[in-house]
């Protein structure tokens, strides 16, 4: 703790994961102590911090700080996104990298854990400024990454535009055309179904959860928050499965549409026009628009938070339980607060956290890596079928892991255990390194 005293987010993440691993740690105490396994897993294998100078549109030199933490390569090349946001510091990158190890392990694919980024803020910058930053960032980063070493992806602030500029610079300096980044455009090595992957994956896992409890998606009422990438494709897949999604939200308001959200209209409003949800309501007579937040008060069988962190609070959890909600699966990262999670679990709601439920995104990024290695592009159907198998397996693994340690039905503990076991076993097999 003293060693990482200036990294509160990292300390919090480590504490949370280790607490939930208590039964595994107790069962293997001597071995783990002898091998210093926990100490090793909490220490990044390597971390880089570097200067990123670039010239703005006024001709002024700006200087940002770049980071890449290569946390754990026991089961595959480091993999994790690049976050571009003014709040980025080494503690945040380490916290995200640490969590990434277990999420990546859960996918069952050979990807280790890493994370990177910079305190650069792409908001309000011109395309030329963003390109100047990305080229400078990659000029340094390209020394440490590669298709078989470390494969970064997008994250907050790093979308298709930034990935494109970074890929171009990597190719130019390293003279290698390889899958060094994921989230690429379809014309230069991106994967079909990546856009849909997180939302679709969330529903494949939710469907398996319902099946395991003797239920189906058919005829279920679903409440979704958010109206971005994850939410849109979660709604689309839920409808394909015969459920009815009656809500969505953005950062200013929310929609209740008892006829079921019209996905085509929602895509038009959000993806094409980039407008507010008031436009959805204006075009859809069955929809009600409300300012502020409130989707969790709508009666439902299944709730899928797909917007942002800390958006499902204790009072929302109480409302969901009172309304007879059976399952909550997280599409977003950390949308449910800890007390809300505990309340849901204590009241018999089947709760699957984001580490497992939204892993379809990173899993499909790993499928992009496979396609790049083969120099082939799979069809949408091929990628989608693989995604479905991966999500079903994730559910089975987390459910089994929870059962094995006497925590049947606790999918949060199950996810941490299942993710950890594979990495720990690989680390043991590879000796002290
Ligand atoms: P987007 O930016 O596409 O969409 C986020 C949506 O949530 C937007 O509609 C946004 O509204 C809305 N939102 C933001 N803040 C609030 C709020 N306080 N209350 C209600 N709605 C809000 O992001 P994604 O869909 O890609 O990501 C959503 C979540 O899923 C994030 O936590 C992300 O980390 C996580 N995730 C995403 C993956 C992916 O592949 N995209 C993979 C794994 C996790 P507005 O339009 O007003 O900004």
Automatic annotation (TrEMBL):
Catalytic machinery residues: 115
Organismal lineage: Bacteria, Bacillati, Bacillota, Clostridia, Eubacteriales
Highest taxon of source: Bacteria
Subunit structure: Homohexamer.
One Pfam family here: ELFV_dehydrog
Keyword flag Metal-binding: no
GO BP annotations listed: glutamate biosynthetic process
Entry keyword Oxidoreductase: yes
Keywords: NAD, Nucleotide-binding, Oxidoreductase
Residues reported in the UniProt entry to bind substrate: 79, 100, 103, 154, 365
SUPFAM superfamilies in the record: Aminoacid dehydrogenase-like, N-terminal domain, NAD(P)-binding Rossmann-fold domains
Similarity remark: Belongs to the Glu/Leu/Phe/Val dehydrogenases family.
Domain Glutamate/phenylalanine/leucine/valine/L-tryptophan dehydrogenase C-terminal, residue spans: 191-431
Protein name as annotated: Glutamate dehydrogenase
One GO cellular component term noted in the UniProt record for this chain: cytosol
Binding-site list for NAD(+): 198, 229
Entries under InterPro entries matching the protein: Aminoacid_DH-like_N_sf, Glu/Leu/Phe/Val/Trp_DH, Glu/Leu/Phe/Val/Trp_DH_C, Glu/Leu/Phe/Val/Trp_DH_dimer, Glu/Leu/Phe/Val_DH_AS, Glu_DH, Glu_Leu_Phe_Val_DH, NAD(P)-bd_dom_sf
Molecular function as annotated in GO: glutamate dehydrogenase (NADP+) activity; nucleotide binding
Site (Important for catalysis): 155
């Amino acid at each position: 703790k003293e060693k990482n005293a200036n990294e509160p987010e990292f300390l919090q993440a480590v504490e949370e994961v280790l607490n939930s691993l208590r039964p595994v740690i107790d069962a293997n105490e001597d071995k783990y102590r002898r091998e210093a396994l926990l100490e090793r897993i909490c220490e990044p294998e390597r971390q880089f911090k570097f200067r990123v100078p670039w010239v703005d549109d006024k001709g002024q030199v700006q200087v940002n700080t770049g980071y890449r933490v290569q946390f754990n390569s026991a089961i595959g090349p480091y993999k994790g996104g690049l976050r571009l946001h003014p709040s980025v510091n080494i503690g945040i990158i380490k916290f995200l990298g640490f969590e990434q190890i277990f999420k990546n392990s859960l996918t069952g694919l050979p990807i280790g854990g890493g994370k990177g980024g910079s305190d650069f803020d792409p908001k309000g910058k011109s395309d030329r400024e963003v390109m100047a930053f990305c080229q400078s960032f990659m000029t340094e980063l390209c020394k440490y990454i590669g298709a078989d070493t470390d494969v970064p992806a997008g994250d907050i602030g790093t979308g298709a535009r930034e990935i494109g500029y970074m890929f171009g610079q990597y190719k130019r300096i390293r003279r290698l055309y390889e899958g060094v980044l994921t989230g690429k455009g379809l014309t230069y090595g991106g994967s079909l179904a990546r856009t849909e992957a997180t939302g679709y994956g969330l529903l494949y896992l939710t469907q398996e959860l319902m099946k395991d409890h003797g239920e189906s998606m058919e005829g279920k009422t679903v409440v979704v928050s958010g109206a971005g990438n994850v939410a849109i494709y979660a709604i689309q897949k839920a409808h394909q499965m015969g459920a009815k999604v009656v809500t969505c939200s953005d950062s200013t308001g929310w929609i209740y549409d008892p006829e079921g959200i019209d996905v085509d209209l929602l895509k038009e409003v959000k993806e094409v026009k980039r407008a507010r949800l008031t436009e959805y309501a204006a075009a859809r007579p069955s929809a009600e628009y409300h300012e502020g937040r409130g989707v969790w008060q709508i009666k439902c069988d299944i709730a899928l938070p797909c917007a942002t962190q800390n958006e499902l609070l204790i009072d929302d959890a109480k409302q969901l339980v009172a309304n007879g909600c059976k399952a909550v699966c997280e599409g977003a990262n950390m949308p449910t607060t800890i007390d809300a999670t505990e309340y849901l679990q204590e009241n018999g709601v089947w709760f699957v956290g984001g580490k497992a439920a939204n892993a379809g995104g990173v899993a499909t990024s790993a499928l992009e890596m496979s396609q790049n290695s083969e120099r082939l592009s799979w069809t949408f159907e091929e990628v989608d079928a693989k995604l479905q198998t991966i999500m079903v397996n994730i559910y089975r693994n987390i459910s089994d892991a929870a059962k094995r340690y006497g925590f049947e039905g606790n999918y949060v503990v199950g996810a941490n255990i299942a993710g950890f076991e594979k990495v720990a076993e690989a680390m043991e097999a590879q000796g002290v390194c």
